[in-house]
Amino acid sequence: xxxxxxxxxxxxxxxxxxxxxxxxxxxxxxxxxxxxxxxxxxxxxxxxxxxxxxxxxxxxxxxxxxxxxxxxxxxxxxxxxxxxxxxxxxxxxxxxxxxxxxxxxxxxxxxxxxxxxxxxxxxxxxxxxxxxxxxxxxxxxxxxxxxxxxxxxxxxxxxxxxxxxxxxxxxxxxxxxxxxxxxxxxxxxxxxxxxxxxxxxxxxxxxxxxxxxxxxxxxxxxxxxxxxxx
Length: 230
Known about the structure:
Radius of gyration: 31 Å
Structural class: mainly alpha
Number of helices: 9
Order of helices and strands: HHHHHHHHH
Largest sheet: none
């Protein structure tokens, strides 16, 4: 084989590496083996080993905290940061069940059917969310659905109160009481939703976002107010 020439590219560097060696006074110590069962203190907690009861209780507490944020609306990122659709689903089902006027085969049913309420709420929330995104909203699709769904809580409370009032009678006094309750809860739902969604919209387009939200909760409020049991 031809001898290596020092003037060739790279040969000088290889020659220097060949001459390098550890001096005798440097000791190399350390442990390179890691026990199989060892766990890092910074290791993330895994819910796979968590009991089902603790998982359910943690989710229920998270939903309850979001309900509190809706009943006491303020500018908070709790509904946006830890969004979920469990609360909106429970509220939608509860409201649809209370608006169910009677049996499905009844010709004198005084309220909308379960599927109608379910579709109106979710379709309306999707349309408002798409409108918000098209206008330049900065929150995600499911974050907006979460806020709109959780803010149905005051109207669900209004429906429960109206059902109790209708048990006492359906006269003029009953209608006035139901009207006041529905108006108060309608305003509460609208203000709560705008408090969470206002900051995510461009300043010059907030009115275009608030108006569909106003119509959305107005339709639900109208269904509650005009509901008459069988």
